[in-house]
Specification:
The complex is a heteropentamer of chains A (124), B (101), C (80), D (145) and E (491).
Chain A lengths: L1 H5 L6 H19 L3 H23 L21 H32 L4 H9 L1
Helix pairs in contact in A: 2-3, 3-4
Chain B lengths: L1 H22 L9 H4 L2 H12 L4 H9 L1 H22 E2 L2 E2 L9
Antiparallel strand pairs in B: 1-2
Helix pairs in contact in B: 3-4, 4-5
Chain D lengths: L7 H23 L8 H19 L9 H24 L16 H32 L7
Classes of the chains: A mainly alpha (124), B mainly alpha (101), C mainly alpha (80), D mainly alpha (145), E mainly alpha (491).
């Protein structure tokens, strides 16, 4: 563990923090019992993936990927991961919308959002 | 109880992810494969080929326009999904649970 | 400068994520989640990802939060 | 759910704010190809303005877009996008090959026009869908989808 | 236009889905007709494209006119084209089958249902044809979101199961995307063919391994392999019949296809892939056994079939794990055989009169006299799942067994035989009810709704599927030599 951490000279620190964020989200999705809370954890997890991709695209001393005229050899950031992540953000908001609709429907019938209570009700 | 078990499972996952991350090119490294293979083509040709100085727009709307079509379809799907699941006010989704004909 | 700002915002995001998952009241959690989205947008700005930051700010901090508030209002029985 | 916030100040400021938001959305969309932004962001801003009007004025008239209209927009946006793609299919290019569109301009400019067209499609579609989802989630629709 | 066949396969359902809600306002019948038309034309395009590919080279279609790896490409090869035909065929039959079910719906709800069904079809077809890893993710999400909505439209119990499916599915998709990020960081490309070349040059290390593992885990979770199947029995039991029919038949098969595509065509054969395949093998063994055992005590037939699906998916994963030519042939044949048979079984069950939420086994008493055609198809499909000759299931299991013996994997071979025995037990219990038990008299009043459901639109798709199960079995040799052998990777 220590050897792993010491290998991060700062160059990979952002990847490490993205991994931490991902696992916080995963933990929340697995452990929290309230469905709305699970959804927030899901969003955290999705943002973690976006953070990872954006970290791949950054170039030190670089500029945003918008062309500056009359300046040769500018170190632009990589536009491809940015474009991909725009799609990923849309996917995450879509998933959240559908999940919330399911959530409201569940609540309308069972009057609870707690996972264990719901499972008990379903077995009745 | 479940919480502790999950943490026990997640810590090795974290170690593995960190180990893998340590092998990736450093953040900001302009010589990594991500910067040397496909991306330079966009940076060199996007403006003249697509007329868009914003490279992200060039990639999003032109080179990978089909992904954007897919993205729009995803959000369209989400809209219809909410409509089907919750129904509208004048026509709440049918209570087809216990008394299905 | 930029090299330290990125990890700093990431740390703030971690703090917000933990807080959003552990706060008792659901509505407070949603608010903190909005802050989380805001910090992530700030992170994307310092990473030169302006388009992503713009989208995340608009979607994460506004639309997702509004959706969450709607759903939580409806599932806790209070009116908007 | 349907009650307004009631405050005339809120009402007036929302009414004042909305046109500026629409203007900003148009700016964001049109300038998508040389500055950050584009159809998706513009659509989100438009949807946010309509949701704001709904929240302040309590739906019904004056909130910009009915639920039925939102569904129509949600279909029309992607159809515009797909239509441009299929248009290029019929004029000799591959799907979404805007350069093949039969417009009397040089190919790069045709591509810019095509890109603008699909960004408009994205904007309309995103606006429609987000308003629709809000209406369904908040059960704010006027019952006429 | 024939130059554009690959994209037309996907565009037909997608554009159809965009038009159906608008048409549905004017005429419900027109919207229904449009749905069937869209799936049919997609099927026609898929068949034409597959024929073209079988007589020539793989078909590369560059979207937007941009050559890969800068743009996105569609690739039709015997594997992808065959999958597309399978998906489009089932979609067409289910689109016809859904007609009577939708009769009680309002026009808006019916159009929304149809539109989402088309989106699901389009999403699955996109997965089978795309040659780009990120594009695969986008279409995976289209199909997943549509599936959540369709499964969740069945009632509140289905909604809870669907919510849990959504959480699991999103974790899977995020894993896939993260794994994709690792591979992109190492190679700088997203195109499958390009990635295969460039990844082979990357020195193997833990980053590449983690990327591969994340992608494999993500797709395996989407397939509902054994320990992650929790949502499935509930969702299949409570979802509307046409939805269960379609999703049980093709959805997990398409994920299996994606897994085969990535493991054998994209990722280089190295330690990472070998480890992933070993682990998958043991997961598959557990899944086959657990699925077969858990299916035994089920009272509800749909729940029983859901557990049997878990076991049957295990067979496919087993074939992937063994990875030799015979085993992969078996896995691919089983993808087709199981898709058609499961569709037939769930279709037949959906046509049964339903008084309660449960479809008890006892409810099938004497069904053969009331619905001889449907039950004949049901029987053929059931025999195929057990693995009786001359149905399709026998031959796929035979190839799998041969693959296991070739690889000296005695445990796998034993598991195959044991689980066939178990499935024989639970299916014969059911077949006994259908043919030998005394059912209620035909004129019982409670059956009116069942008779109404049994219009030709319900019977014809089910019978067609049953016939296809037999045809695949009878002509399996031709199918294997003309399509599947050409779809196999170079081993």
């Amino acid at each position: 563990m220590v050897s792993v951490l010491s290998s991060f000279g700062g160059g990979q620190l952002q990847y490490a923090l993205a991994a931490v964020l991902l696992l916080i989200g995963l933990y929340g999705m697995l452990v929290k019992t309230n469905f709305a809370r699970k959804l927030m954890a899901m969003n955290v997890m999705q943002v973690a993936v976006i953070v990872f991709f954006v970290s791949l695209a950054v170039r030190s001393g670089g500029t945003p990927p918008i062309e500056i005229e009359h300046e040769a050899a500018v170190a632009y950031a990589n536009p491809l991961p940015h474009a991909l992540m725009l799609t990923a953000i849309v996917v995450s908001v879509s998933t959240t919308g559908v999940a919330l609709a399911l959530l409201i429907r569940t609540h309308r019938r069972f009057n609870t959002l707690d996972e264990s209570e719901l499972l008990d009700r379903l077995r009745e | 109880m479940i919480g502790r078990l999950t943490v026990l499972l997640l810590i090795p996952a974290l170690v593995v992810l960190l180990q893998a991350a340590a092998e990736l090119p450093a953040v900001g490294d302009g010589t990594s494969p991500a910067f040397t293979h496909v991306a330079p083509y966009y940076l060199e040709h996007a403006h003249e080929e697509t007329g868009a100085p914003n490279f992200v727009t060039a990639v999003l709307a032109d080179y990978r326009g089909y992904d954007t079509f897919g993205e729009l379809t995803v959000i369209f799907t989400a809209g219809l999904a909410c409509l089907l699941i919750l129904g509208t006010r004048d026509e709440p989704s049918r209570p087809r649970d216990e008394e299905t004909p | 400068m930029i090299d330290t700002l990125g990890p700093l915002f990431l740390l703030l995001m971690v703090v917000c994520a933990v807080a959003a998952l552990s706060v008792k009241e659901l509505l407070s959690a949603v608010t903190i989640f909005g802050a989380f989205s805001f910090f992530s947008a700030a992170f994307f700005v310092v990473q030169d990802a302006l388009d992503v930051a713009f989208t995340e700010a608009a979607v994460g901090a506004v639309i997702t939060t509004v959706f969450f508030v709607c759903a939580i209002k409806r599932t806790t029985g209070r009116s908007v | 759910m349907r009650s307004r916030f009631g405050s005339p100040v809120l009402d007036a400021s929302a009414r004042l704010l909305a046109p500026f938001m629409w203007l900003f959305a148009a700016y964001v969309m049109v300038h998508g190809h040389d500055s950050p932004g584009g159809g998706f962001q513009a659509g989100v801003i438009l949807a946010a303005s309509i949701v704001m009007l709904r929240l302040v004025r309590g739906g019904g008239t004056g909130s910009g877009l009915s639920s039925r209209g939102a569904l129509t927009l949600a279909c029309a946006g992607p159809l515009l996008f797909g239509g441009i793609g299929i248009g290029s299919l019929f004029s000799g290019g591959n799907f979404l090959d805007y350069g093949a569109l039969p417009l009397p301009m040089d190919p790069v400019q045709v591509r810019v026009i095509g890109t603008l067209g699909i960004e408009a499609g994205v904007m309309l579609g995103v606006t429609g869908v987000l308003v629709l989802i809000f209406d369904v989630l908040a059960s704010w629709d006027d019952g006429t989808v | 236009m024939s130059r554009h066949l690959p994209i037309l396969i996907v565009l037909c359902p997608l554009v159809g889905a965009l038009i159906v809600p608008l048409v549905g306002r004017v005429s419900v019948r027109a919207a229904r007709g449009l749905t069937v038309l869209a799936t049919m034309s997609s099927l026609a395009c898929a068949v034409a494209a597959l024929r073209e590919v079988l007589s020539g080279d793989d078909w590369h279609y560059h979207l937007g006119g941009w050559a890969p790896p800068w743009g996105i490409e569609y690739v039709v090869d015997p594997l992808g084209g065959g999958m597309a035909v399978l998906v489009a065929l089932l979609a067409t039959l289910v689109a016809i089958y859904a007609g009577p079910y939708l009769r009680g719906f309002s026009s808006l709800r019916g159009a929304t249902f149809d539109s989402l069904f088309l989106l699901l079809t389009g999403g699955l077809l996109g997965i089978t044809l795309t040659g780009d890893l990120f594009n695969l993710y986008v279409f995976l999400e289209i199909s997943s979101l549509a599936a959540y909505a369709l499964l969740g439209s069945g009632g509140e119990r289905a909604v809870v199961a669907t919510f849990r499916y959504l959480l699991v599915g999103t974790i899977a998709a995020s894993f896939y995307l993260l794994g994709l990020g690792y591979l992109y960081a190492l190679t700088g490309t997203l195109n499958m063919a390009d990635l295969a070349i460039r990844l082979a040059a990357v020195p193997s290390g833990s980053a590449a391994t983690v990327g591969v593992v994340l992608i494999v885990v993500g797709l395996a979770v989407k397939m509902a392999v054994f320990p992650l199947h929790g949502w499935m029995p509930d969702a299949y039991t409570y979802a509307p019949p046409p939805v269960t029919m379609f999703i049980a038949a093709v959805m997990s098969k398409v994920s299996a296809y994606a897994l085969i595509r990535l493991l054998f065509f994209v990722l280089p054969a190295g330690d990472a892939v070998a480890t992933a395949r070993d682990v998958l093998g043991w997961v598959a063994v557990a899944g086959v056994l657990a699925g077969s055992v858990l299916a035994l005590p089920q009272k509800d037939v749909r729940r029983m079939l859901a557990y049997s699906s878990i076991g049957q998916m295990g067979y496919i994963v087993l074939g992937v794990s063994l990875g030799n030519a015979a085993a992969l042939t078996g896995a691919l044949l089983h993808v087709g055989a199981h898709a058609v048979a499961k569709g037939c079984l769930f279709g037949a069950i959906g046509s049964m009169p339903r008084q309660t939420v449960q479809v008890e086994i006892a409810g099938f008493a004497g069904a053969a006299r009331r619905a001889p055609l449907t039950m004949a198809a049901f029987t053929v499909a059931a025999l195929s799942l057990i693995g009786m000759p001359p149905t399709a299931g026998f031959f796929s299991k035979w190839y799998l067994l041969r693959g296991a013996l070739e690889a000296d994997a005695w445990v796998f071979a034993a598991v195959l035989l044991v689980s066939s025995l178990l499935s024989a037990i639970y299916f014969f219990r059911l077949l006994e009810q259908i043919y030998f038990a005394d059912g209620p008299p035909v004129s019982e009043p409670g059956q009116a709704s069942g008779v109404a459901r049994r219009s030709w639109r319900v019977v014809a798709p089910v019978v067609t599927l049953g016939a296809i199960v037999l045809l695949i079995g009878l002509f399996n040799g031709a199918l294997v030599t003309s399509v599947i052998e050409r779809a196999l990777p170079e081993l």
